């Protein structure tokens, strides 16, 4: 019997990055019985890895479980909103000593596993650094889009004038009169990434202590012809680019398999089946202040009233997953008589037309797959965008940082939704949000958004599951 080949995956524990690795693990478990799967990350992802492993074994009884390696006693990638919004720490989120600790941990795991192939999260700087430094066979697996990875390599300096600088609210295509402003934004971004003293000290410290040259986000601005980058996107669903390097391989959306809502939460399944539902889910990181919740509530009241006034068929209801603080604690009342939200939505609460919950037991993707969701209100995170696109659900996007602005522009460019806060982002106001919801759900363009969303979902289905495409590339490169 031939010896099993070993695949090692190195990723941050933040779900926006890690989900595609978990999905890929599942695909490998179903297609490659002669492959051992090893995944290294920080402690918060352990439970999700165990769940993914159990799901894979349940679906494929002959598969081997995922071997998890915890990266110990080191600084995890900072996953707070302020850090994600700022490309200075994002390009080098560690101090020099923290980076050395992480690199030594990665070295330990690589030496222990002795992988035949390693896949590294494109935002996991220690993993990128050590994979290159140790000379192992490796590839990058990224949730980013073609625009994100190929933009610095576009001809005619298109990076400066053709595409909105990340983290800005500039539209695509950029109007002529805004091109100088975009050039300024790009120059500022480059300045802070290149001349950030803390990052430079960290890089120098790593080179001095372990002899490695740091591989961080700056490296993606240089051609990497011999390094394959598997990408969870497709040119069909992105801004057009003039040049795609051969080593950047679009695999299509990489989605985790999910259990049906009926199986996970039968009561929610019954409730969703009552009528069309607006699903508000702003991801795992953003939080909503009471003032913002009030603005949202006012927009929802206006939407529901408009639905009834127009005499639309059936019931319209709202499922709203609301995170009030960074750590998920309760900071303000929702249903208490006389509180700000109850004064706005009290009658809707009483009729169970609007549910505001801290957590939804079922995965967002499986909620969207029920066929009962008429609109996904999300923050423009990559996972949220792809989940809605893959299920043919129109979107209203409330971007909060960095590339979430790109996804707000993407839904408008693709004709599958609206930006819900174009003049107030990263905050939002009732008037703008209500207008966007109305256009997507009951307005004259609503049918157009629905048809276009279903059309793209069909195109994605024809391309096949992205996780299976990644698995085939892995098997072909071991």
Automatic annotation (TrEMBL):
Keyword Metal-binding included in the entry's annotation: no
Mind listing the UniProt keywords for this protein, alphabetically?
Glycosyltransferase, Membrane, Transferase, Transmembrane, Transmembrane helix
Which residues span the membrane? Answer: 174-195
Which InterPro entries is this protein grouped with? EryCIII-like_C, UDP-glycosyltransferase, UDP_glucos_trans
Question: What is this protein's record name?
Answer: Glycosyltransferase sdnJ
User: What are the Erythromycin biosynthesis protein CIII-like C-terminal domain coordinates in residue numbering?
Assistant: 352-449
Q: Pfam families from the xrefs?
A: EryCIII-like_C
This chain's source organism reads Colletotrichum asianum
Q: What Gene Ontology molecular function terms does this protein carry?
A: hexosyltransferase activity; UDP-glycosyltransferase activity
Q: What is the lineage of its organism?
A: Eukaryota, Fungi, Dikarya, Ascomycota, Pezizomycotina
């Amino acid at each position: 019997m031939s010896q099993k080949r070993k695949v090692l995956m190195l990723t941050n524990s933040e779900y926006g990055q890690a989900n595609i690795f978990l999905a890929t693990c599942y695909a490998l478990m179903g297609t490659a019985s002669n492959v051992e799967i090893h995944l290294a990350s920080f402690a918060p992802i352990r439970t999700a890895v165990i769940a993914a492993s159990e799901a894979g074994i349940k679906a494929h009884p002959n598969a081997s479980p995922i071997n998890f390696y915890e990266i110990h006693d080191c600084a995890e990638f900072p996953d707070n909103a302020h850090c994600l919004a700022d490309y200075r720490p994002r390009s080098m989120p560690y101090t020099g000593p923290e980076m050395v600790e992480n690199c030594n941990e990665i070295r330990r795991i690589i030496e222990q596993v002795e992988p035949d192939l390693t896949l590294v999260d494109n935002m996991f700087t220690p993993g990128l650094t050590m994979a290159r430094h140790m000379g192992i066979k490796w590839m990058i697996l990224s949730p980013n889009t073609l625009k994100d990875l190929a933009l610095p390599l576009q001809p005619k300096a298109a990076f400066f004038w053709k595409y909105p600088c990340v983290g800005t609210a500039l539209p695509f295509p950029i109007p002529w009169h805004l091109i100088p402003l975009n050039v300024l934004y790009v120059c500022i971004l480059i300045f802070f990434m290149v001349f950030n003293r803390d990052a430079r000290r960290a890089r120098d410290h790593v080179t001095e202590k372990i002899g490695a040259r740091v591989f961080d986000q700056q490296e993606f601005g240089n051609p990497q012809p011999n390094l394959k980058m598997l990408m969870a996107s497709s040119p069909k669903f992105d801004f057009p680019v003039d040049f795609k390097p051969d080593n950047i391989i679009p695999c299509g959306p990489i989605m985790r398999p999910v259990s049906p809502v009926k199986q996970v939460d039968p009561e929610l399944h019954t409730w969703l089946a009552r009528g069309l539902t607006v699903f508000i889910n702003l991801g795992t990181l953003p939080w909503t202040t009471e003032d913002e919740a009030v603005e949202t509530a006012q927009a929802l009241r206006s939407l529901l009233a408009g639905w009834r006034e127009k005499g639309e068929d059936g019931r319209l209801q709202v499922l709203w997953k609301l995170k009030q603080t960074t750590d998920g604690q309760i900071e303000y009342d929702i249903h208490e008589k006389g509180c700000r939200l109850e004064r706005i939505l009290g009658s809707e609460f009483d009729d169970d037309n609007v549910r505001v919950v801290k957590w939804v037991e079922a995965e967002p993707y499986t909620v969207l797959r029920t066929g009962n969701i008429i609109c996904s209100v999300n923050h423009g995170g990559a996972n949220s965008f792809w989940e809605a696109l893959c299920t043919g659900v129109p979107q209203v996007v409330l971007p909060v940082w960095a590339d979430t602005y790109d996804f707000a522009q993407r839904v408008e460019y693709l004709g599958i939704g609206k930006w819900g806060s174009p003049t107030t982002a990263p905050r939002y106001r009732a008037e703008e949000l209500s207008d966007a919801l109305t256009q997507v759900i009951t307005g004259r363009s609503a049918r157009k958004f629905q048809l276009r969303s279903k059309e793209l979902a069909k195109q994605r289905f024809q391309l096949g599951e992205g996780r299976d495409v990644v698995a085939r590339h892995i098997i072909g490169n071991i």
